[in-house]
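__Protein archive entry__

___
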Amino acid sequence: MDEAGWIEASKRGEVQAFNHLVLAHQQMAYTLAFRMLRDEEAASDATQEAFILAFTRLHQFRGGSFKAWLARIVLNQVYDQLRVQRRHPTESLDPLPEREDAPALQIPDGEPSPEQAVLSSELLACIESGFETLSPEQRATVILSDVQGMSYDEIAIATNASLGTVKSRLSRGRLAMRNYLSQHSELLPASYRHYYTGQFVGDRGLPTVVADG
């Protein structure tokens, strides 16, 4: 059965069918939440709640990119978490209660993938620091484009924004990342410094070595 089949079966309430959608998209959802929140527990909570909401609201999905539709739900949970963090910066987030009817979800444990393992931890730390200087909307747009590889149309769905707004946020976000790394070149590993200070982010977005992470 293809994704469309799993979606239709899930709309009929078949939890096992929805579990196939979870397995197909949980890495995208968790990565998006984690790169936005920079906290494993908060990202896991946001991802868990997003999938539960997606399951209960699947009747609202009218076709198109399921990945983009799901990413929009994830981002809504992320923004809720960010609002909580701003109000209570020193408080830990309570885990969500278990629900008997919730679909199975295997949250990644936060360990680096084989692709991530070959990257310099210093490079990733510097890039993540750059992400944190962006507004949440710019950060989400850059991550969806240059990390998740979504199209403008998919990003527009995921962020509930017009195509013009998506393009503007992406351009400004990439420029801000380039400027950040140019101004903090001392944080970059020596083997990357000459490249990233000169052309870290251009019209094509983050380099493949970063997008793969």
Notes: The chain has eleven helices and no strands. The radius of gyration is 18 Å. The chain has a mean pLDDT of 79. The longest helix spans residues 15-37.
